[in-house]
Amino acid sequence: MSNDTVSIAATDAESDLTSDGKQLSPYTDSYQFKGVHHIFTEHTKAVTTLQFAHQNKDLLCFASSDCKITFASTAKQPSVLQQLTDHTRGVTDFEWSMTNEFLISSSLDNSVRLWDVNTARCLRIMYDDAPVTSVRFHPFNNNIVVAGTAASKLKVYNISTGKCVQKFSLNAPITCVNFDSSGQLLFAGDAKGNVHIFEVGGLGQVGPSTRVNISTRAVTSVEYMRWHRKHNTPSLLVSSCDNQVRFFR
After folding, report:
1. Domain locations along the chain
2. pTM > 0.85: yes or no
3. Over the stretch 169-184, which tens digit does the pLDDT of each residue have?
4. Looking at the domain covering 37-179+204-215, what would its CATH class be?
5. Which is deepest, 7, 36, 60, 103, by most CB within 10 Å?
6. pLDDT tens-place string over residues 32-54
7. How many whole angstroms separate alpha carbon 249 and alpha carbon 236?
């Protein structure tokens, strides 16, 4: 992989001119913000993460250090739909299932929880011996969930049974996890600036990892996407606490 440290800028996009002669990318029309649409004030502490539902721009979920997870509609008349309140400490991460029927969440209360989105009912709890910092569904097998912990453990759970089926010990607390779009690679960032790359088998079994050190500070997020327009190659974005975003391809 080649490595470039990048600022937030559209360097490769094709351009168009506005009526006043300014140059704009083809994406600009989608981001012509014209004021605040709505402010949700349901949480009393920092919002830690948020995501729109898959293929649904009107359904938003956000979680907070106040232990709660909120579902909200962002349609013309925004509203809170329901809240999940079973976590007893701050929520660190969550993800929608492929069909948006379920949600998986992680928390400083040492748990991973599976939720029914329609009923707001907690369906299953997987307890750990340390705070759980990050969690992801396998993109094509939502029966498999991967979680990273503050005790430097990467765990693979079978949601049907609630059992941990694989466990890996890394060299630092895990700060984030994510799959590539094919589900064949798993990335785990840690507090020492490493990205661990695991190969994933067809049934969701996780293999040995390769470690790449990209910083002296903690990795905060890892995002994989086939989005680079000129090269059409797999791309990886990694952000870290050294105030940099690194772009790999």
Report:
1. 37-179+204-215
2. no
3. 999 999 999 999 889 9
4. mainly beta
5. 103
6. 667 777 789 889 999 999 999 99
7. 6
